[in-house]
Amino acid sequence: MSDFSSIRSNAAIQGAYGNAKSLKSPAQVAEGSDAPQSFGDMLRTAAAQSVENVRQGDEVATQGLTGKAGIQQVVEATMTMESTVRVSVAVRDKIVEAYQDIMRMPI
Length: 107
Prior knowledge:
This is Flagellar hook-basal body complex protein FliE. The chain is an all-alpha fold and 107 residues long. 75% of the residues lie in helices and 0% in strands. The chain folds into 2 domains: 1-36, no CATH class; 38-107. The radius of gyration is 20 Å and the shape is elongated.
């Protein structure tokens, strides 16, 4: 593995980290909240939004079956559900992989 210290100085890295801590997440911008959001809160919000996207897609699909929604709406809702599920699975896989890497670390 290459040594990244030769690429960037520690001061530049610490400065970038300090600047990143002051950035607001999209949820904070939408809420207008100045309090920093924890990683767990961010995951909880993303999971709730994912569940809501799937529920809305399921509702539109049901409306399509009963003739209350058009084909275009059903296709759009289905595509939204599919992309939500794909992203959720990818995030879950990354979290599990990170957890496994941490558990493999020697103490």
